[in-house]
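Interim report to the steering committee. The following record documents the input for EamA domain-containing protein (291 residues).
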Amino acid sequence: MTKARTTGHIAALITILIWGTTCIATKVLLRSFNPVTILLARFVIGYLALLIWKPGLLHIADRRHEWLFVGAGFSGITIYYLLENMALTQTTASNVGIIVTVSPFLTALLSTWFLNAKRPTIWFYIGFVVAISGVILISDPGSAAGQGSLAGDGLALLACFAWAIYSVLTTKIGELNLNVIQSTRHVFFYGLIFMLPIAYALGFHLNFATLQQPQNWGNFLFLGIGACALCFVTWNLAVKRLGTVVSSVYIYLVPVITLIFSVIVLHEPLTVPLMIGAALTLAGSWLSGKN
């Protein structure tokens, strides 16, 4: 394994270890703030952190490539996280963490269509069916595992589509050989531009008295500096070094991390059907990885 690919694997692992706990931090903040307030605040913090980390303008040789950043900001920042935060108001952090493992399947399909990646083998489709079976099991309110709602789980699934689009666009951005920190910040810029009118329409409200509580400002800093500024840089680096499909495989670790922390921190119930659903989702993801 080359040094570049090793760096990519390390970057992806660090990213997923942190992202696996973001649902927990967001769930805690949702007790005091609405989804759009959390979303806007965390990415403002992330943008400022990246600006301090690597100041200066991003120079793009071909201005037509600007549309890649526009699309990435809209899909991966504004839409994905808005849908995810809304999903967390209606379903459990465990459900959201498990459902996002569908993202690699969608990413692989879009990569085949738009990045000329190799076509998936039969294992890809078998794995997809197995994983979706797990998602249905944990999402069915009539089952013992159903701790959330179909509406919330549906929003989480829609977020997966947005992330798949973002993954394809960041792959194209990585081919431009730009500074990773500055290009990530540029994506954040467009994400915030699209986010502002949505925040205004949905009622952005940051209660500063509530914000002073240690668990609230601590979680905002964790989401802004850790999950946004640091992890988007490490994830974009991983995609650049490993490619879209390989780096997306690490998303399969998200439900395991989320389940562990949701039980420990949020005291969410860990039922047998939920564990079976998680196992099916991960098994399906592994089978798909044989592609």
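The chain has one domain: 3-288. The committee is asked to note this result when reviewing the revised timeline.
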